[in-house]
Design a protein that fits this description.
By secondary structure, this protein is an alpha+beta fold. The protein is 36% helix and 18% strand. The chain contains 24 helices and 22 strands. Helix 22 links the parallel strand 19 and strand 20. Helix 12 packs antiparallel against helix 16 and helix 16 crosses helix 17.
């Protein structure tokens, strides 16, 4: 019989390893299910035997620690910045100085991409992550260890190495996909989207609740290891050594023999960098020899042995014609610049986002100004500066509006909010139609045949004022509308009837309570089971629910206390929408899947992975842990791992969707 402690240690080691396979090497060797099972087993053991607590256990990655004030820590080795260069000439200049100071022209360089995120210094002692500190002013930074531990690609425990202690530096980044997904969720929940991945990454490190950080898809790319007894005499080899310890060191790094090759690397990545899953803004060139690095040392600000080359972001000058103000479904005002059309990166640009009034003030924008426009990671370009020399007496400072452009109500701006809001919730047309358009959208009620334009049309003709009105519509009312054929009118009505079957959690999302996005709606539906329970819930009850914070709870309470909303909900009820969780009668136990082996992968829309597995077993099937020749079907949700997909394809195993699976077990 193995001792409990032995079991715990073994599980921890295994999980550390699997973490590395999954998050660093991107080649998982066990299924997510097995991983979850092991993690759960470890968690159970740790709960039972708290005396074996370990702050670096894989269970600690979920976070939970709250930091009110981040402790200031003095760096053992200063975190310098880098000198910047913008041209070949700058680099040649740098090379000349190196040759002069070192007395040789035989100098190897490493070329690395300059990752755009927040720098971090990780300290390891006895193979354990001890500290993670931000750069701060270079001398002192903030202790953000609890938050950084939630980043899965950062090893908490290293395999035994000779190094007793060392520091490793890198960049905490937010990959573009993850960033966009976060923003999509925020917009759907009626929150402002984040500006860019870099700021969001550094902002994430300063969140007080590490469990919040754990939910963000942060990653960490390492670029420098510092220690007294590093095994090699070149920067490149030391980084490759760090890679064997489990750190994520991108393969883009390259050793070159001279400056020509550096320039070639820069050229090569000028465009290729846009294919990477994260943002980069340049190349960092470093002298590869550690001895040479030491010989050259540092200036007051930066190492002499390294230089950053910044890629030029394509910029154009054009004229600011006017500023429009858009009103969102939550009443949030977004200023948008209208520009004299100009080509930028192969497309014609006519509009640029301005985000909020602070942004306009910061730029000091005048109408008729010549402005610099740039494309960032976002889809719509942005104004980054003004050519003040060209300003003439035709130009007039942009005065931010004080009243709603749609309903003329005086705008409000609450302390701490970047945006202005129109408070006329029930009388402001874009807010009314915005809520209805959100209600019918694909992720909400998904009403076939009905789109945003038709909603505007119905509102214009005074046929609807809120989303409940949709269910009272009759074909005869629709047919007289512009461009409305009888068939499309009937389709709309059919789509609405069908939407009455949409499950409660989606209805809850569709209702559009501020801050209640898709995920929160799911949590609420699962916990409270019905709209009545949610409307009755107090603030205190709400915040006890997993993932429901203060602002969400307050928003729900405000919604529930509002008579108009109460009336709206009771009308939805009377039309027969799903306002409570239903137990789907069609899915009973059966023998339909007898002798079939399923592998389940990814995230599912309608049920959790565990529920899906249960369904397979209840219907006589077996759940396999990994794809093999014996597997009959792979049920794939969102985010199925690429290696799994290719394995299934290699073995020619059918990959089916969640819905196809339901069809297999339905009558
Ligand atoms: P700057 O902030 O312009 O002074 O540039 C220095 C910063 O670039 C460092 O603090 C790092 O956070 C960041 N950086 C990104 N990629 C690299 C890299 N490959 N090597 C060194 N520094 C990098
Ligand atoms: Zn308004």
């Amino acid at each position: 019989m193995e001792s409990v402690l032995y079991q715990i240690i073994k599980l921890r080691d295994e999980l550390h390893q699997h973490n590395n396979y999954y998050y660093v090497l991107d080649k998982p060797i066990i299924s997510d299910y097995e991983f979850d099972q092991k993690l759960k087993k470890l968690q159970d053991l740790e709960d039972l035997y708290p005396q074996y607590f370990d702050e670096n256990s894989p269970t600690q990655r979920v976070g939970g620690q709250i930091t009110k004030n981040f402790e200031t820590i003095t760096h053992q080795n200063r975190m310098y910045s880098l000198d910047n260069s913008y041209s070949k000439e700058d680099l040649l200049e740098w090379e000349k100085r190196n040759i002069r100071l070192l007395g040789t022209d035989k100098i190897n360089y490493t070329c690395e991409l300059k990752f755009d995120g927040a720098s971090i210094n990780l300290t390891y002692e006895n193979n354990l992550l001890k500290k993670a500190v931000t750069r701060g002013d270079g001398f002192q930074g903030d202790n953000v260890t609890a938050n950084v531990k939630t980043i899965k690609s950062i090893p908490l425990k290293l395999p035994n190495s000779q190094l007793s202690s060392f520091e490793i530096r890198g960049e905490i980044i937010l990959p573009i996909d993850g960033f966009n997904k976060m923003n999509q969720d925020r917009v759907e929940a009626g929150e402002d989207p984040y500006m860019n991945p870099r700021n969001t990454a550094s902002g994430s490190l300063k969140l007080q609740d590490s469990a919040e950080v754990a939910k963000r898809p942060l990653d960490c790319l390492l670029y420098q290891i510092i220690g007294n007894n590093l095994p090699f005499k070149t920067h490149f080899e030391n980084l490759q050594f760090a890679k064997t310890l489990g750190f994520k060191i991108p393969d883009s790094i390259k050793v070159v023999n001279n400056l020509d090759e550096v320039l070639h690397f820069i050229d090569e990545w000028d465009q290729k960098r846009f294919e990477l899953p994260y943002e980069t803004d340049g190349v960092v060139v470093k002298i590869n020899s550690v001895d040479y690095q030491e010989e050259l040392g540092y200036t007051a600000k930066s190492p002499r042995w390294a230089i950053a080359y910044k890629y030029k972001t394509e910029q154009v000058l054009t004229k600011l014609l006017s500023v429009d103000y858009q009103v969102g479904r939550t009443g949030a005002i977004t200023p948008v610049a209208n520009l004299e059309p100009v080509e930028l990166g192969g497309t014609i640009v006519k509009r640029a986002s301005l985000h909020n009034s602070d942004q306009i003030e910061k730029l000091g924008l005048h109408i008729n100004d010549e402005v610099y426009v740039e494309k960032g990671g976002e889809i719509i370009p942005k104004i980054v500066g003004v050519n003040e020399l060209k300003r003439n007496n035709e130009s007039q400072i942009v005065q931010y509006i004080t009243h709603c452009p749609e309903c003329h109500t005086k705008l409000k701006r609450t302390e701490g909010d970047a945006k202005h809001y129109c408070p006329n919730e029930y009388g402001c047309p874009p807010q009314i139609t915005g809520r209805i358009i959100h209600f019918i959208s694909r992720k909400a009620m998904n009403v076939d045949g009905l789109g945003a334009e038709t909603v505007e049309l119905l509102f214009k003709h005074k046929l609807i004022y809120d989303y409940a009105d949709l269910y009272a519509l009759k074909v005869e009312q629709l047919i007289p509308l512009e461009r409305m054929a009888e068939k499309s009118a009937q389709n709309i009505i059919d789509g609405l009837v069908k939407s009455k079957e949409i499950p409660f959690e989606k209805v809850l999302f569709a209702i559009g309570i501020r801050f209640v996005g898709e995920t929160v709606a799911k949590k609420l539906a699962k916990h409270f089971k019905s709209i009545d329970n949610i409307l009755k819930a107090s603030y205190e009850e709400l915040i006890t629910v997993d993932e429901i914070g203060g602002s969400i709870a307050q928003s729900i309470v405000d919604f529930s206390n509002n008579l108009i909303n109460q009336h709206l909900i009771s009308r939805l009820k009377s039309y027969g929408l799903q306002l409570e969780i239903s137990i789907d009668e069609s899915i009973k136990t059966s023998e339909k899947l007898k002798n079939l082996i399923f592998v389940v992968s990814g995230v599912f829309e309608k049920i959790s992975r565990e529920e899906l597995k249960l369904l397979i077993e209840q219907n006589g099937g077996k759940v396999g842990s990994s794809i093999s020749a014996k597997t009959n079907y792979v049920v794939a949700g969102d985010n199925m791992g690429p290696s799994k997909r290719s394995k299934a394809e290699d073995l020619k195993i059918p990959i089916i969707s969640e819905n196809v699976f339901y069809e297999m077990i339905e009558e």
